[in-house]
Amino acid sequence: MAEATAVPEEKTEQKPNNNQGQDNNDADNGKPKKSRRGLIIVIVLLLLIAGGLFYWHSTYYEDTDDAQVNGHLIQISTRISGQVIKVNVDENQYVQKGTVIAELDPADYQVAVENAQASLASAKAAAVAAGVNVPITSVNTGSQLRSTSADVVGAQAGVAQATSQVAAAHAKVVQAQANYLKATQDLERYKPLVAKDVISKQQFDAAVAQADADKAAVEDAIAGEQAAKQGVQVANEKVANAQQQQKAAQTGPQQVAAQRAKVQQAEAQVKSAQAQLDQANLNLSYTKIVAPANGIITRKNLEINQNVSPGQNLLTLVSLDDLWVTANFKETQLRHISPKQHVEIAVDATGRKYDGVITQVGGATGSVLSLFPPENATGNYVKVVQRVPVRIDFTDLANQDKGHELRPGLSVEPKVRVKD
């Protein structure tokens, strides 16, 4: 009996030990379940946050990685021909606006300036002389006009006087002829009387002498009349001459106008000479080739003693002051993009972000503006999302890029804020 009771006691003592081990295993199995549940919750939260961020970004922003920095590539050339005597820059050197890049031989252009200066001085002297002649011509023509007018009046008075003298001479002729007629008639009456000795020979001789005298008086009066008529002709010629001189003097205003025209011509020649001098000075200044803007020298093709000609490309100046971004957005993005929108520009080369603003949206897609535009009328058309260039200007480039780290051609990623 004692042995029989002992066995159950041992079993009862082992049962508590088995239950305690099972409870410990259940406790250990519960910890991984709680950890997995927490991990799932974290993952779900992260996915929700990522989805929210994606929705927020796609709703309020448009971006692209097909964008680059653009700038002005200025082709530097000379405006005159000449020989290079000095080169002041090297490849990839930064220069400021106004820096003398190279110099040409100025000897020929200096001579041209001196020649133009001499021509200008001569033209000015001629203009001064022409200007002095204007008042002189005006005074001379005025005095000539007054003098010739007086001469015309005097000549006309001479004609009147000569005409009066002709009339007086003609009256003398008539009187002389009347006297001669009377003398001849008296002589005819005296002839029979003297033959009969009614009158003396002395009286007859006196009548003959009187008739001869009256005949001579007639001839003298006729000669005087002819002389008076010639005087009238001479007076008329004087009148005609005076009138011609008066007409010539009346052209005085035209002569003054002609002289003033000469002055204007001389002044025009002065201006022409001044323009030639200005051009000569410009050509002389062109012997120094200067940088038109701040930038970096590239593609230098310029050496000392090289002969250059106008339009010849000598080097390229990459301007760093006026830069912008050309971003090629998809056509599906353009519905949200418009000018004056703010842009955040991330630059790969500098690792920095810059502020910008949209200023222009391209007038056509890049494919249309390419060298070989696509032909969609072949029947093999496949719809491809097109890209349109959009210009983005930096809003504060002078302060954000003081070290001129940006370069044309650098890749950038613009992000446009399309909604507020």
What is this structure, in a nutshell?
About 55% of the residues lie in helices and about 20% in strands. With about 425 residues, the chain is of the alpha+beta class.
Describe the structure.
- The protein has 420 residues and is an alpha+beta fold.
- It has three domains: 1-40; 63-105 and 292-417, Beta Barrel (OB fold (Dihydrolipoamide Acetyltransferase, E2P)); 110-271, Helix Hairpins, CATH 1.10.287.620.
- Helix content is 56%, strand content 20%.
- It is built from five helices and 13 strands.
- The strands form two sheets. Strands 1, 2, 4, 7, 9, 10, 11, 12 and 13 form a nine-stranded antiparallel sheet that branches. It has a four-stranded antiparallel sheet with strand order 6-5-3-8, with no helix packed on it.
- It starts with a helix and ends with a strand.
- Residues 1-19 have low confidence and may be disordered.
Task: Tell me the layout of helices and strands.
Blueprint: H1 2-60, E1 61-63, E2 67-77, E3 82-87, E4 94-95, E5 100-104, H2 107-195, H3 201-250, H4 252-285, E6 288-290, E7 295-298, E8 307-308, E9 313-330, E10 342-347, E11 353-361, E12 387-394, H5 397-400, E13 412-417
Antiparallel strand pairs: 1-13, 2-9, 3-5, 3-8, 4-7, 5-6, 7-9, 9-12, 10-11, 10-13, 11-12
Helix pairs in contact: 2-3, 2-4
